[in-house]
Amino acid sequence: MFTGLVQDLGEVTRIDDTGDGVRLAVRSHLASELSEGDSVAVNGVCLTAVGMCGGELFGADVMRETLRRSSLGDLAAGGHVNLELPLRATDRLGGHVVQGHVDGVGAVRATREDGFARIVEIEADPSLLRYVVEKGSIAVDGVSLTVSAVGDTFFAISLIPETIERTTLGAAEPGRPVNLEVDVLAKYVEKLIR
C-alpha cells in the first residue's frame, strides 16, 4: 500500500526488452532502501525490485499486461519517474490509500496557470470517470491529488508548487499519457449499492 506522496524523482537509465516484457533500471537514492523482492511504486504502478538493488540503482521487471494497461510502455532511457516506497505500519497516511494498481491511462488535455498553482485537465474513459468526484481523491502517475473539477470527458487537478517541482506532473504537456488510479473506496461503494 502507498500514500501517493512521491518520495523521489528517479531517472530511467536503461530499458531492456526481454521478449517477455521489459526490465527497467532506475537511478534513485531510494535504491539503497530496497532489497530484491521489495515493492516500489513507479509512476503509480506497484513493481517488484529485482537485480541491481542497493547503491543508486534498482531494477524492476514490467510484464506485458502492465505495459498494456499503463503508461510504462512509453518510458525511455533518460526519462523521469515518480517513486514511492510502500507504507510502513508506523508511517503517517498523509495522502490517500493508493494500491499501485492502475485502473487506466488518461491523457493530459490542457494546462493553465492559476496564481502559483497549475491546473491540469486530464481526459479519461467514462468507465473511470464514474468514480471521480469533485474534491475526491485520485492518483495520477502515483501522485495523490484532489479533483478540482469534473466534466463529461475529463477531470481537473490543481498542482501546488511543491508538486510541480518534485514530480513528473510539473512537466506535463497536452497529449502526455498518465496512469490513473481511482479511489478504491468508490469502487467498493459502487459494488455494495449494486
TrEMBL record:
* SUPFAM superfamilies assigned to the protein according to its UniProt record, in alphabetical order: Riboflavin synthase domain-like
- The record places domain Lumazine-binding at 1-96, 97-193
Look up the record and give one Gene Ontology term from the biological process aspect: riboflavin biosynthetic process
> Is Transferase one of the keywords UniProt gives this record?
yes
Give EC number(s), comma-separated.
Answer: 2.5.1.9
Q: In which pathway does it act?
A: Cofactor biosynthesis; riboflavin biosynthesis; riboflavin from 2-hydroxy-3-oxobutyl phosphate and 5-amino-6-(D-ribitylamino)uracil: step 2/2
> Per UniProt, which keywords does this protein have?
Repeat, Riboflavin biosynthesis, Transferase
Highest rank taxon of the organism: Bacteria
Per UniProt, the enzyme's principal EC class comes to: transferase
Describe the reaction catalysed, as an equation. Answer: 2 6,7-dimethyl-8-(1-D-ribityl)lumazine + H(+) = 5-amino-6-(D-ribitylamino)uracil + riboflavin
The cross-references to PROSITE patterns, in alphabetical order and at most eight, read: LUMAZINE_BIND (PS51177)
The Lumazine-binding repeats are at 1-96, 97-193
Q: Supply one GO molecular-function term.
A: riboflavin synthase activity
| Keyword Transferase (UniProt) | yes
Q: Which InterPro entries match?
A: ATP_synth_asu-like_sf, Lumazine-bd, Lumazine-bd_dom, Riboflavin_synthase-like_b-brl
Briefly state the protein's biological role.
Catalyzes the dismutation of two molecules of 6,7-dimethyl-8-ribityllumazine, resulting in the formation of riboflavin and 5-amino-6-(D-ribitylamino)uracil.
Q: Which PANTHER family match?
A: RIBOFLAVIN SYNTHASE, RIBOFLAVIN SYNTHASE ALPHA CHAIN
The protein, known as: Riboflavin synthase
